[in-house]
Amino acid sequence: MTGIQSLPDTDRAKIINRLKRIEGQARGLQAMIDENRDCVQILDQIASMKAAINGLSGQMLEVYALHCLRHPDQFASAEDAVAQAVQAVVRAGR
User: Fold this and answer.
1) pLDDT tens across 14-39, in order?
2) Could you tell me which of 20, 24, 90, 9 has the C-alpha nearest to residue 57?
3) What backbone torsions phi and psi does residue 2 show, to the nearest 5 degrees?
4) Quick check: is 38 in a domain?
């Protein structure tokens, strides 16, 4: 299967930028806990992080579908490519 290294630089940069934002949210959440902030505020931050991670998951699925599946020679068969794509979608939906 094709790896992430084969993605166009723009797609890789978008993924990295999203990860950096999520990292910042995680640091903010840690600071909120250290500062003994209100539980509702902390839960709101956790919800924001979940949404950001779900967005990243959708972005990665799109990248996978548009770039990684374009190389059928990287799979044992067409059926294998479809099976792996389905598994990726199922895992991302959990």
Assistant:
1) 999 999 999 999 999 999 999 999 99
2) 90
3) -70, 140
4) yes
In a domain, 3, yes or no: no
Q: For residue range 47-79, what is the model confidence (pLDDT) as tens digits?
A: 999 999 999 988 888 887 877 777 777 778 878
Cβ–Cβ < 8 Å for 71, 41: no
Whether the model clears a pTM of 0.90, i.e. scores above it, the answer is no
Q: Determine, yes or no, domain membership for 34.
A: yes
The count of structural domains within the chain is 1
Helical axes 39-66 vs 78-92, angle rounded to 10°: 170
Q: What is the CATH number of the domain that holds 50?
A: 1.20.58.1000
Residue 1 lies in a domain: no
